[in-house]
Design goal:
The complex is a heterodimer of chains A (171) and B (188).
Chain A lengths: L1 H12 L5 H14 L5 H12 L5 H39 L3 H4 L1 H27 L3 H16 L4 H19 L1
Helix pairs in contact in A: 1-2, 1-4, 2-4, 2-6, 3-4, 7-8
Chain B lengths: L15 H14 L4 H14 L5 H13 L4 H44 L3 H12 L1 H15 L4 H17 L3 H15 L5
The chains are: A mainly alpha (171), B mainly alpha (188).
């Protein structure tokens, strides 16, 4: 349980650039340490996506739940938000001026964030490329969300229903 | 429900419960993460006249400069701005509780339903889009960024380092940010 708390504290500290960047780190940590199998983790991400709330938070809650039940879910959720909350308090107490020099730092963070996105892609690519069906759905999702303004939720739910139909029809 | 008739019509800080309920309601009905949630928060606090538009843009810029989900950061900073520490706590609880309850409920249903083929297919389909969505997100950042040779080299090197980093990803991430910050402005 202490390992769980420390891991999610650490992950929360690097949570720049939105939820998806963190999901890759969670996957590397949780699957890399053998806490969950890759298959169990993909299921967990699928559930985290279709639940209200930020996907990284949901994923953290679910990992805690799978490992230690309710106490684990509470511990993982609080750990992953601890650093962001502390940062929010600190930044509210400091003056806004501290941020105005942020141009160069913002660019450096973008570099790091793109790296994290690459890592997330790398971690999930093998499972998506495992069959023509999942690879096709992934390419379709890329096309729709890169070139249209469709809410990602509809992409996720739509793909879920396509997956359900495909499974029921072709097995 | 939050506006009790008061003797003076000044902009006084909203109470703990009204802040809590607002963020709780937003969090419960908004699926799809930060970029969906932030505009909803903005409209809600402006309609209640708790915050001016320009103030919200400042908060949004601050929310992006600290770690953590954008939706959570925007909410907690807004809570602090409109009602101080009680507002901060109210916003935090309001954002965290609905997804927490929903996910525990959903996880229990799914483990009870076991491997029903329809559920299995749905989960596989919902997961299959993840690499596509992540790639689209990266694509949009790449397309909008102002590129220099240094930034391109740093980004490629940073991505390679992070892919190789395994469980060291977090320290490596901060290393990449520090190095990229030091080289920023070089070789323009």
């Amino acid at each position: 349980m202490i390992d769980l708390v420390l891991t999610f504290l650490k992950i929360g500290a690097a949570a720049y650039g939105g939820g998806w960047t963190i999901v890759g780190i969670i996957q590397t940590d949780v699957v890399g340490r053998g806490w969950l199998s890759p298959e169990a983790f993909t299921d967990l991400v699928a559930v985290a996506q279709v639940t209200p709330g930020p996907v990284a938070l949901n994923a953290a809650t679910l990992v805690g739940w799978r490992l230690y039940g309710l106490p684990g879910a509470i511990a993982a959720t609080l750990s992953v938000v601890a650093v962001p909350l502390a940062a929010a308090v600190a930044i509210s107490l400091l003056s806004k001026k501290a941020l105005k020099s942020g141009g160069k730092l913002t660019e450096a963070l973008k570099t790091g964030t793109l790296g994290l996105l690459a890592m997330t892609l790398w971690a999930f690519m093998p499972q998506a490329a495992a069959s023509w069906r999942t690879a096709g759905l992934s390419l379709l999702a890329f096309g729709v969300s890169a070139f249209t303004k469709v809410n990602p939720l509809w992409v996720i739910l739509g793909s879920g229903f396509l997956g359900m139909i495909a499974r029921l029809v072709w097995g | 429900m939050s506006d009790f008739p008061t003797d003076a019509d000044t902009r006084r800080a909203p109470g703990f419960l009204s802040v809590f309920w607002l963020f709780c309601a937003i969090s419960a009905v908004t699926i799809g993460g930060g970029y969906v949630m932030v505009p909803v928060i903005q409209r809600a606090v402006e309609r209640k006249r708790w915050l001016k538009e320009a103030d919200f843009y400042d908060l949004f810029a601050m929310a992006q400069s600290i770690p953590g989900p954008l939706a959570l950061n925007s909410a907690t900073l807004t809570g602090w701005k409109i009602a101080g520490l009680p507002g901060f706590i109210a916003a935090t609880l309001g954002i965290l509780l609905p997804p927490f309850a929903a996910i525990i409920l959903l996880a229990s249903i799914i483990s009870a339903a076991g491997d029903h083929p329809a559920l299995r297919g749905f989960l596989d389909g919902a997961f299959a889009v993840v690499p596509g969505l992540v790639a689209a997100l990266a694509f949009n950042v790449i397309r909008k960024r102002q590129w220099t040779v240094t930034r391109a080299v740093m980004t490629l090197a940073g991505a390679a380092a992070l892919i190789l980093a395994g469980t060291w990803a977090v320290p490596v991430f901060f290393g990449v940010v520090v190095v990229a910050r030091l080289f920023e402005g070089v070789g323009r």
